[in-house]
Design brief:
Elements: H1 3-18, H2 24-50, H3 61-79, H4 87-109, H5 115-122, H6 130-134, H7 140-147, E1 164-172, E2 178-192, E3 195-199, E4 209-212, E5 218-220, H8 226-232, E6 240-244, E7 250-263, E8 266-274, E9 276-278, E10 284-286, E11 289-293, E12 300-303, E13 309-311, H9 355-366, H10 369-379, H11 391-402, H12 410-429, H13 433-438, H14 441-455, H15 461-480, H16 485-504, H17 511-520, H18 523-528
Antiparallel strand pairs: 1-2, 1-5, 2-3, 3-4, 6-7, 6-13, 7-8, 8-12, 9-11, 10-11
Helix pairs in contact: 1-2, 1-3, 2-4, 3-5, 5-11, 10-12, 11-14, 12-14, 14-15, 15-16
Length: 538
Amino acid sequence: MDLQALKLTSEAIAKAIGKGQEPQDELIAVRHFLTEMCAQGEAALSGAAAGAGEAVDEMPPDQVRYVLEELAPGLIRRMCRERSGDNQYLDVCAGVLEGFLDLMLVELKRGRFNQDFLFACRQLFDYDCTLHKANFQIPEETLQSLFTKGSGQAWRNDLKEGDKVDALLHHYDRMGSSRGSGWSQARIARVEQDALFLEYPMEPKESDRSLDRWSVEIAPFESKTAEIWEWKKTLKANDHVDVRDDAFKWLKATILQIDEVEENGRVAPLALVGMRIYTPTGQRRDERGNFDGWSDRYNERMSVYSPRICKFLTLSTKQSTDDDELDESLDEVMKPEEGQSRVWAVPRPRKCTSSQYMRQVGLFCHNGGLDLILSIIKSAEATDRPDGFNLCVLAILLSLVSLPSAIYHKAVIADYAPQLIEASKERLLSAPDKALRDVRREHIEAIVKATDSLSGRLVGKVEREKTTEILKLEVSLLCLNSSYMERRIQGIRDLTYIIKNNRLSSGRFTGAFLAEWLQTHGVFDVLFDPKKTHLQLI
């Protein structure tokens, strides 16, 4: 397929999808084209490795540029938005995306880092897209059958009437769709074969429901709730908390009042929650004082033990809505895909159960994707070439491999995450001044965010947050020591934000630690040295 035919095919696909049609034949043609392009790239690699003197027949540069910079970004974006009841069409869409995945690996092997193409391929690793949320879902029955084999799951066989368990409680919208969930405590009211009828004693009666004994939505009693319920026993009026509101967003809130309420024979503490924080510097005022947040019109009553109430600043400050603990039970029972030597990806209920996403991540890893990107981060030579390696490329590649961090098998995380984190930190913190000048701020932030995401599977929350904040301090110092004024101003702004955010977040580290760090790393010397400083920095 020449360039003109490829453009016409791409236009036909875009027009058909825009009309709600499913251009299966055109997508198959693109898939064949990508297979051919990958074969030519592999041939070029083989020829170079063998030192062959003959030139390999490759596509014209303008056609390659069109594929990488126009076809891939547009088509990947459209495919990731697809939703269909036709499994054959979905398989064709998946085939096209796998074609782009193969092409990305070929381009990386050839040391060609086209940023437009790599950024487009990043979408292939995002499981929070329509394609993987609405299609390819592994049936609940299949997941439950895996739990029957799971390590440590024998306790489910012994569940009986009167037993207590931890069970998920969902927060539903008006259409009846779950928009959030959290762990609560339930009592098994009765058992009918594998059906467990659960009562949530601290919730309204309409929250009661039945679950299969092998459901991923139940866990041993107090395995998920012990710590948070112990904390909730101490809640009182005027305490600050995080609350998920009716718009399903986590907000900073205040407990205004707690009353013991009896309803349908159940007695539970009911909290009146104000979606606001009272502070002397608040921008609004009511009879209680100055506050930031929402007026009493938006007050809500809810059970103190509702999963919608959490510790202050644990969820309201998160950029991600993914606040569920990761359940690694299935890691013990998954078997490798045919032809693969290990399990790379594991379905995570309430996160991603797309069979195609598991397959895609597995193919990427099995074909050497993680090893290749780790090698590139460690040793690729930085250049000024348009398709050369630089900090922008580092940000894209690290972000790309961090997106499935919750989906990787725990052994994969143990093998690769520490290496990826350390190699990326080393590359960022040792970057020459010129590299800092050329990189955008969002790319530096993406590197920090990706390392934080990967470390989330390795260490506890407190240690992870502290490590991430220290990396931010180191990056701020790197910028502050730059010879470029723009970067130095960014460095001092970031330092100010870190110190302020540390205070508001109840201290990820002490003031003494911060003061010692600033002194040890010469921050004050840089700021007040008349030869180095500038009025804008002050």
